Records
---
Amino acid sequence: MRKRTYITIKLLLFVLCVTPCMAQFVLPLEVYADEDEEEGEEDGGRSRDIDALKQQIAESQAAKERANQTKNQLASGMASVQQVIGSLESEKEDIVSYVATLDAAMEQIQDDIAAIDASISENEIQIDEAKKAIDTAQKELDEAERIRQGQYEDIKDQIHFMYTTQKATFADILFTSKSIGDLLNRTYYINRIMEYDQKKLAEYAKTVEEADAAKKVLEENKAKLDEKQAELEEKHAEAKSKEEDMGKLIDAKEEEIGQYNDAIGDKEAQVREYEAMIAQQNAEIAAIEAAIRQQQAALQEANRRVYGGGQFVWPAPGYTRISDDYGMRTHPTLGVQMMHNGVDMAAPSGSPILAAADGTVIAASYSGTMGNYIMIDHGSDLISIYMHASSLNVSAGQEVGAGDRIGSVGSTGRSTGPHLHFGVRKNGAYVNPWSYLK
Ligand SMILES: [Zn+2]
């Protein structure tokens, strides 16, 4: 029972706690362990090539930045021109809508003119009819006058005849009459004829008077029609003048619209120029990006490091005492058996930490357990790890050579005293550092 509890506690401690040297190590290293390691040849001018490639990439990125700036300036210029087009369009729209109003007014004027013209035509017909009626009336008057005048002349002749030849007439009547009755009868008729003539004359005179009055009425009517005609002609002239003014105004406004269209056309041509220049700039940027991708691929290729083999430089120069070796051990503070995945080299705080071999610094950071730590990728999926440093001399991405000072020994993170924990990972797993140290 007691033993079982003890084992449980031991297991619990093992699960809950981690040694200073194992802590939080798996994740960052596994990230790098995923990287492919390909075969390649060690090149003496490798770092020079890498520097040249990095220089190229920096230059390309600067060129891309400049191209982007130019593009942005072009885009901004184009936006200004587009804004001007917007204003011009808006102003043009105002005029177009004004012209629409003018067109409507023009249509009204032309409708009015058409109505006036119709009235004039109608009035002209009436005037023609009135003229004809007057002509007819005049003819009737002339005829009546002629008849009256003829009657008057006849009566005058008869009276003259009767009075100048009264005696002879009476003698004639007397002697030519076959009888008394005939004589009386004949004088009676003469008197009757006279009476009849006089009555007729009066009637004819009345007819003339009436014809004259009728003609006067017709003439008055025609005068009114003529007056109306004059008024209509005047209205027509006014409307025509309005039409002319409106036509001129519409022409002027349409000319303005034409000017706006020209201006908009010019600006649109500018926009097309901008678009062409932006397209050119985009093509240039795309070309630069392609070059950068190519250069980065070349850099990646050049960076593909291959570990040349051979012994590591001792990372804590002058300090060879091993305070804790690689392998299973009893944890100094937890008292449990645990795997120690590196070699602890006892060294005073501040003493140098050296890069074990040529490589690229892939981490130079701080963690609660590892303290200040450094990882160097030596290629061929070989990574060296340095922990608990008091200070770091390198940063991630930096190339280092074997024996370069990368930091100083310390006791940061979970550490019991100043020492360098040195670990080695190969193909994603910890291996015994002694394989490389001697
Ligand atoms: Zn250690």
Note: The chain has two domains: 2-40+309-437, 79-274.
---
Amino acid sequence: MGNPPCCSYYKLFVIWGVVGVVLLGLGSCNGEDDGDSSSSSSSSSSSPTPTVAPMEWKEKESLYAAIQGLVGSSWNGSDLYPDPCGWTPIQGVSCDIYDGLWYVSVMNVGPFYDNSLRCIQAANFTSHLFELKHLTSLSFYECFTTPVSISGLRWEAFSETLTALEFRSNPGLVGGLPPSIGSLKQLQSLVLLENRLGGGLPPEIGNLGKLKRVMISGNRFDGPIPGSFGNLLDLLILDLSGNDLSGPIPSSLGGLASLLKLDLSDNRLEGPVPPEIANLNGSLMLLDIGGNNLTGRLPESIQDMASVKEMVMSNNPELKGDLKGINWGNLQELQVLELTNTGLQGDIPDTMSELTALRHLGLGNNSLTGNPPKWLAALPHISALYLNGNNLTGELEFPNQFYTRMGWRFSVVDNPGLCYRSPITSPSVDSPHGIKPCSTSV
Ligand SMILES: *[C@@H]1O[C@H](CO)[C@@H](O)[C@H](O)[C@H]1NC(C)=O
Ligand SMILES: *[C@@H]1O[C@H](CO)[C@@H](O)[C@H](O)[C@H]1NC(C)=O
Ligand SMILES: *[C@@H]1O[C@H](CO)[C@@H](O)[C@H](O)[C@H]1NC(C)=O
Ligand SMILES: *[C@@H]1O[C@H](CO)[C@@H](O)[C@H](O)[C@H]1NC(C)=O
Ligand SMILES: *[C@@H]1O[C@H](CO)[C@@H](O)[C@H](O)[C@H]1NC(C)=O
Ligand SMILES: *[C@@H]1O[C@H](CO)[C@@H](O)[C@H](O)[C@H]1NC(C)=O
């Protein structure tokens, strides 16, 4: 049973700490800490058998009680793990040294490993959790199954310490996200994935200027996206997908200059795509605003988003607009363009042939017209092309090898005015699925 890396690492510091205390003692200074800690660590460095590392009694009792509330009262910490930061480490719990004493710094609860702490059905928070003075990272995975709430808890207690808070796949986690989350000034990572949290997103989250990622997808949050999220200038990932958020996309999100990933998909957002979103052209790689009810046409400003690799706006049937007038050639990184079911009209413009990095083009279920241009099949990396459910017309003039290569990743079905020229020489070659051959008269 090895110690977690942190602990063996910090054991070195215990030893050096003891040396330090000895040197201080020689210099006839009185250490601030009481003799208890130094004496027990002295004995641990000189004795052949490990003894209890210095840890405040209260810290240890708080840890035991916090865990008991989650894993059940039959779990006897003092019996099983008498030295939780030392020679009897608890899976998922790590410690750090502050002022010569051990404190719990990390607590991960849930079935990460075989011998991880696992929650009982009646798992609940106890106030003891909030007595852990130096907790920097707290995470609960598949823990809460019967309804418990995280509001009304003393989050302020962690305001100077907690950098990461994570709740993942907790079907019992209900109720709102309390505004007191906004007191966690050191927070860099807020991950709330696949729980049943609901209510509005507290604007106070916008005060947490150190946040690098906010991932809250798969909950039941409703109401607007707070404009204050635009203050999170260090943010790399903002994922609010799969909730019930409504109202407009705040234009302030255009100020999140460090953002790599913006995912607002599968909510009930409405109104136009704010042109400010196109300011995210320094580092943004993924933009997903699909599955909402956005309106006001496909914005021309997306042509400025030169860094984006994946752009998804599908399933916004009221978006409308057309593909013309956008300088597609500027989007040299774009690999995935997904505009299925966005109410698009007009032709597929030849300027789109400049999208040379494109792998996936989804234009299905729109009202596109005209003849599918030949160059689509010649895009160097194209491996998925959906043109089904439009009003495309004329003869499909792609090479037969293209149909063979693409298989089901190419679709033109439900374009009543479109036909393909049947190859006379090799009738066995794959033909596009679901459209009729052109009548033989040229
Ligand atoms: C835990 O175990 C210790 C030592 O075996 C015992 O004294 C204590 O009463 C136990 N505590 C609980 C809560 O069962
Ligand atoms: C969980 O604990 C909190 C206090 O920490 C209490 O208010 C709440 O009623 C408890 N919930 C359940 C389901 O026991
Ligand atoms: C989408 O928005 C339109 C117009 O703003 C509205 O008429 C329609 O009911 C909305 N649809 C949904 C599913 O919310
Ligand atoms: C980035 O966006 C700004 C404003 O939207 C625009 O002026 C600029 O040309 C864009 N940069 C690139 C490389 O497209
Ligand atoms: C297109 O619309 C049809 C009928 O409404 C639907 O069955 C199909 O799943 C849609 N396809 C896509 C790619 O959205
Ligand atoms: C296709 O065009 C016809 C005639 O212009 C129109 O009636 C029909 O609604 C269009 N279909 C789609 C899917 O846009």
Note: Residues 5-26 form the longest helix (22 residues).
---
Amino acid sequence: MLKFASLASLLLPAAHSVSGACSNPSVRKAWTALNDDEKHDFLKPEVCLMETSSKTRYAGSVSHWDELQALHTAQVHYWDEQADQAAAPLYASSIFNAEMGFGSNKTDANGCIVDGPFANVTNTLLSNFTRGPPQCLTRALDQAQFNLVAQAKVGLCDASTTYEDFNACLGGDPHVAGHYAVGGIMLDLALSPFDTIFFLHHTNLDRLWWVWQSRDLGARLTDMGGVNVASFSVLTQAQPKSLPAGAFVPYFGDGGGNVTTLNHNLWMADILPNVTIAEVMDIHSDVICAEYL
Ligand SMILES: [Cu+2]
């Protein structure tokens, strides 16, 4: 959660380009900008990931999807929450379409979604990274929260002149309210990536970071900072209690301090090679090689 801007838009293996050249960037589009074929092409592999078996078995993973949930990463299109918030009520956003989206706003008495491609998927991951009984995918849309992701809020963040200030601002309403607007499992610090919308929400945050960087690439392609360990309350909700914050620090690559540097290692749980933040600062780098449309 803390390093959302770096962790969210990870790269599936196909996104790795030939060294030195990002000549054919993958194109990240707003969900509303995709045609039905493109939406279908996105949704079908998501379900497929849930049906193919895990290679790493990380955190008790059974499927590839389990791995991505545990790792909190994937490369996807984005949910242009600012455009959708301005255009229509939350439930009318094209992302909540039963046929060509992630399911409608309908839920049963337990808060389980009842339609769309993820209606019958089940989560078994627990916050302590062990496995438990199957749980349905829950949501509870909240318009008041969605109003907090408005462009006016993002505009306040855009005025920041340092990454640290920008990250703190974007990590406030634009980030948190996106989770609360969807509700259900999206409120769970550890388990929220079970809802595929998590990845489109976080890729949107990455896009907003890139918009901010693009205003001054000379300075902002190398501007990093902020604490490198989540707060105690976040850690106790999202990490096994056997792994206190201090257990990670020696592996961060930040020289042992508590400030995030460009040398910070992003751990990929053996799903992909680890990368440093320096390697993902520029969306045109070999590692990312993407474009926002
Ligand atoms: Cu988040």
Note: Confidence is low (pLDDT under 50) at residues 1-19.
